[in-house]
Amino acid sequence: MRASLFAATLSVTLALSLPPAAASPAAPKYGSWGVDYATMDRTVKPGDDFFAYAEGTWLKTASIEPDKTGAGYNYDLPDLAEKDVLAIVEEAQRNPTTPQARQIGAFYAAWMDQPGIERRGLEPLKPYLARIDQVATPTDLVRLMAEPAYASPVNIDIEPDEKDPSRYTVGAGQAELGLPARDYYLLQGAKYDAIRAAYRAYVVGIQKLAGIPDAEAKADRIIALETRLAQDQWAPERRRDPRATYNPMDRAQLTALAPAFDWTATLAHVGLAEMPTVVVRETTAVAAAGKRVEDTPLQTWKDYLTFRFISDHADFLPHAFDAAHFDFYSHTLKDVAAQSARWKRGVRLLNADLGEAVGQLYVQRHWSAETERQMAELIADLRAAYAEKMGRAAWMDAPTRKAALEKLATFDPRIGHPARYIDYSPMAVSPGDPLANAVASETFEWNLDLSRLGKPVDRGLWGMTPQTVNAYYDPTMNQVTFPAAILQPPFFDPAADPAVNYGETGATIGHEMGHGFDDEGRQFDAQGRLRDWWTKAVADRYTAHAQSLVRQFNAYEPIPGVHINGQLTLGENLADLGGLEVAYAAYRRYVARHGEPPVIDGFTGDQRFFLAYAQSWQGKRREGALREQLLSDPHSPDAFRVNGIVRNLDAWYAAFDVKRGDALYLPPAQRVHVW
Q1: pLDDT tens for residues 332-369?
Q2: Of 303, 342, 524, 612, which is the most exposed, with the fewest CB atoms less than 10 Å away?
Q3: Model pTM?
Q4: 536-554 vs 638-646: helix axis angle to the nearest 10?
Q5: Judging by beta carbons within 10 Å of its beta carbon (0-12, 13-18, 19+), is residue 298 exposed, middle or buried?
Q6: Which regions of 365-437 does DSSP assign to beta strands (E)?
Q7: Distance in angstroms between the alpha carbons of the first and the last residue of the chain
Q8: Cα–Cα dist 347/84, whole Å
């Protein structure tokens, strides 16, 4: 993915007076055919470093803005989307003619009222901390931890049942801790010692800002608890195994696994009394978390909940809390120099908490019928190319090939925006209390999930808003979703050379479709059921082949001493590689229909295809942000999503005359081919 989630339901109309969507441009945004020559470094040999060849000048000259973790197209397009949303919000505030517009305006106004936040001080925080103070027993504790606003070592959610995705079920699994990945607690070395020392200072500082006594000793107990939880949690690559994380349990089994969570009472407390089973994800981590509830003093848990509530909601508190949170989580961990402008952060909150209300207006202004038409053609070519490649894949046998083609036939692409939008009217918004609004949003989302139980799964729900610059595949729905905001230059340009759109958007579509057949997605069948539909011989060949890609990526070392985790990133790397293979085949199908393209500015159509792919990954990151990505993110860094992928494609070798002796050269026998 450029990222599964589930959004929400019910149609709502926001009828502000808006201008019609702009017509498609007559010329591409970048260059004369869709690629920016200025970013290239033609002194670099393509076969030595294709990423630098396509982006080398940009890499040497582009700077990262002080408030960002990185630079490149994946930062530029969200900037544009945020400005577009700001215009929508300002229009809603000028013309609050509907309840939804007033809701948007009030939510944003509460966030922007910094003097009011300072004036109210800690007063808005008191009712939530009082709930923690009132905890008197372990049963009180686990019930409070199950509520959406409070932290817990076990996350409870509602989602489609992976064995029967036509219905919803309840899941329970390990939850996030105060540090962004378990390895921050566990890895040794001066860098991680310094991060842990800074985290301790942050835990102490947050408590002192809130007037909590004995902050130093409490911080030590909180971090000791989190470290024990981290030691028990599953590594991120292990969590990618959908069979290992599918463990339905009834009440008796849950009680045997982790009796301290008092499952019957706790589930009833959050509206789940009628659910007979819970799908436990990381079983041993959940069991261990239950032991921590039993063997950790109740007061330590209360201190932990207090710290986490304040820290998790620091953005909505006076400036000192907000600044402390930024200083640790952004500056220390990610090397970000400056906080983003207040309006940008307000737009991001709106996108998170009232996202589809804003998204409906975004679509009215920014979605193009021509984009929709061209995307339909691209998807048709990708689907046909996948079918052709599956039909020829020598590693597949007839039964597996038949089932794979059936899955391809049921694949459901969704473009631009949902057909129906979330109705946020039940969510109370205060114009004078952003903390209350944040908690109201958390509660609203939980209640929305609860409202789905007992009903058929709604396939029309979206897990991203239209204004999100990203895309995703959902294996339980066999759906790929492309929000409107990602379908802009450079990722998609209706006026660009077709080679560019097939190399950029085509590869992205191919990537998301490819997730249906990666090491994780391949375990779901045409109906989205977690089911073993591969014959053993084919599965063994696939796994052995995939491990060759794991070994390739394990060898890459973006930061000295920190390698890419080839197993964690395997699904994304397989989707990148298979997606690019199929996108190239789709491009050749387009060429067969429309004729061989001319050479433009010295570049053949095939060269333009691969250049566009490389430029779509334009990006650089701060070291701290890159470290966090390598420790927790299933996506490889941008440079390796180019160089690590193209070196496996025979067509790239032919396009740029890459030969033995070039740095990226792999002998044919060592190249990994998904399709």
Answers
A1: 999 999 999 999 999 999 999 999 999 999 999 999 88
A2: 342
A3: 0.92
A4: 120
A5: middle
A6: 412-416
A7: 19
A8: 10
Q: What are phi and psi of 376, to 5 degrees?
A: -60, -40
pLDDT in tens, 129-141: 999 999 999 999 9
Q: Which of 239, 98, 68, 227 is nearest to 626 (CA)?
A: 68
Residue type, 208: K
Work out the widest C-alpha separation in the chain, in whole angstroms: 76
What single-letter DSSP state applies at residue 173? E
- Contact status, residue 315 vs residue 322, Cβ threshold 8 Å: yes
Other Cβ atoms closer than 10 A to 455:
10
Q: What is the mean pLDDT of residues 20-30?
A: 66
Question: In this predicted structure, what is the pLDDT of residue 245?
Answer: 98
Res 25: pLDDT: 60
624: Cα separation from own chain's centroid: 19
Are residues 553 and 564 in contact, defined by beta-carbon separation less than 8 angstroms?
Answer: yes
Residue 596 DSSP symbol: P
Residue pair 460/420 in contact by the 8 Å Cβ criterion: yes
d(CA 525, CA 511): 18
Nearest to 181 by CA among 218, 233, 245: 233
**Residue 455 vs residues 21, 177, 235, 316, 449: alpha-carbon distances, Å:** 36, 33, 34, 35, 11
The average pLDDT across 445-463 equals 96
CA dihedral 527, 405, 463, 285 (to 10 degrees): 70
Domains of the chain: 37-62+369-413+487-670 (3.40.390.10), 123-317 (1.10.1380.10)
